[in-house]
Amino acid sequence: MNAGEFVTVLGSSGCGKTTVLKMVNGLLSPTAGEILINSRPLVDQNLVQLRRHMGYVVQQIGLFPHMTVAKNIGLVPQMLNWNQDKIVSRVTELLKLVQLEPAKYADRYPSQLSGGQQQRIGVARALAVNPPYVLFDEPFGALDALTRIELQKEIKHIHDTLKDKTFMFVTHDINEALFLGQRVMIMKDGQIEQFATPEEIVQHPATQFVSDLLATTRQNQGLWGRSE
Ligand SMILES: Nc1ncnc2c1ncn2[C@@H]1O[C@H](COP(=O)(O)OP(=O)(O)OP(=O)(O)O)[C@@H](O)[C@H]1O
Ligand SMILES: [Mg+2]
């Protein structure tokens, strides 16, 4: 991956996508090969420091239910002993970035939010200390199609706005992977089938598996424009 790039990781359930993210974050060690961050082996780096530089939006949202939205977003700044004014202004800024009105949402609890709103808070929290790397593990998996498309547009906009951030975004949805990724890494059974730009993948699928996946896109199934 290159600095500032938006890479999506696509593959079926159980192919090892979450495992890849956990290895990049240092939560798991690879049994073979090595992970390089900024050209340096991960094993040589201080994991606490590294994770401060890496936001992580986990697969099951993972907001703390007993904390307000503001406290959830401000968690890492609080741990790093930022002063309170700075935390409040950062939380306000992030809520605006994810399109939630601060006055309305800051003091709510996660249970008082819809699934899509909770996911926005998860994204805001991952961005709190302005990390250069952000890992996303199927953040929109549980959302309805319209909310999902809206959040896809937003995350793309956020990547464009916050220049120089490297995003690694896991999904099992090929439409999402091709829409968001500047490059897409397609996995099957723990192996990389193809890692290329969306255009390259669509024009030159590297394997039968990639071709089969492409055949499931909405365009190719002929499901668009069907009159019923
Ligand atoms: N801690 C573990 N110990 C042993 N095997 C594991 C462990 N965690 C995951 N696995 C196995 O490793 C494989 C890959 O798991 P992983 O969670 O990376 O899949 P995934 O691609 O993220 O799937 P999903 O889309 O369902 O989240 C699966 O077969 C899973 O059962
Ligand atoms: Mg997973």
Automatic annotation (TrEMBL):
Top-level taxon in the UniProt lineage: Bacteria
InterPro entries documented for this protein: AAA+_ATPase, ABC_transporter-like_ATP-bd, ABC_transporter-like_CS, P-loop_NTPase
EC id: 7.6.2.9
Residue ranges constituting the ABC transporter domain according to the UniProt record: 1-214
Molecular function as annotated in GO: ABC-type quaternary ammonium compound transporting activity; ATP binding; ATP hydrolysis activity
Gene3D superfamilies found in the cross-reference section: P-loop containing nucleotide triphosphate hydrolases (3.40.50.300)
Pfam hit, one: ABC_tran
UniProt keyword list: ATP-binding, Nucleotide-binding, Transport
Keyword DNA-binding annotated: no
Family: Belongs to the ABC transporter superfamily.
Name assigned to this protein: ABC-type quaternary amine transporter
